[in-house]
Amino acid sequence: MAADLGDGLFELLARYGHEQISFAYDPECGYRGIIAIHDTTLGPALGGTRYWTYRGDREALVDVLKLSRAMTYKAAVAQVRVGGGKSVIMKTEEPVDREAIFRAHGRHVESLGGRYITAEDVGTSPADMEFVRRETRHVLGLMEGFGDPSPVTAFGVYRGMKACVKHRSGSDSLAGKTVAVQGVGHVGLHLCRYLREEGARLIVTDVDSDKVKRAVAELGATAVAPEEIYEVEADIFAPCALGGVLNDKTIPKLRVEIVAGGANNQLAEERHGDLLESRGITYAPDYVINGGGLINVVAELEGWSREQAHAKAAEIYDTVLHVLTIAKEEGIASYRAADRLAERRLAEAARRKKEGKQESR
Prior knowledge:
- By secondary structure, the chain is of the alpha/beta class.
- Helices cover 48% and strands 14% of the residues.
- Strands 1, 2, 3, 4, 5 and 6 form a six-stranded mixed beta sheet that branches. The chain has a six-stranded parallel beta sheet with strand order 9-8-7-10-11-12, with helices on both faces.
- The longest helix has 27 residues, at 334-360.
């Protein structure tokens, strides 16, 4: 991220290839929001709203650019009819009127005329989306809808993890495997439940000690300090907290065969995917394996049942296997293989869209 922060604004936009960036400020409530629309080839840009404390405007911008681009690729590999977008609201230490903040965000979303659809993300909830809905209809993840996407996200990660094991050993059983889970919040805890049910041994950590205590008490997990999770001996490392955890300092410490988790933007830089490959570690690209959250929101948009949403999330197993097969056949790192798959599908969709316009003339 440090290199990104040194770039100029338009250099950043050119690097990530966005269609539109929108900034909004409401001095009355202190709202400062950025909405990034990366690509609408497949449909309206869909992506959650992140409410987070940033060190400055530029850091917030880089975050929303990376997250929205990942949403485009996530939608493409999941084969759902939406494009990629994301929004961030800059959180401050001062007390705020949460309703006012999210209603201001709703007006920001509404100003884009349906090109962007939002939902919950880190730091937000279905209750916040209800405030957004008072100003726009372009919002999902509502209280009467599917709500918290974490269970579906965790199920998709679980299925993708099994695919990684299948790729390496020929069997997708997780029984007897040791999984080191970083972050046992909503997604991480649900993932741990799936793993425990199949007979995996759990090693967990979190900056919130209460969450760790819950995982230990409920699932018999072994707890370690946050800085120790990278060095534990395990079969699988599952990053389920924030991004950038796979970097020059942490990758050399890993004593695992597989990295497969629910966090976004796990690689601090793309080259860290190559570093994992050079160490013989199978990496499930984050936006491929954690696509269950997107699927959950699309299910609400399309009117699917919960059963249909889970069935679609189960397909992540086949998608991860497909990506790992491309990587092996083409001799490239798995994150590059995922990008190639997404870009091929986007190019095909763009071609069909262009042909359709020409036929309608």
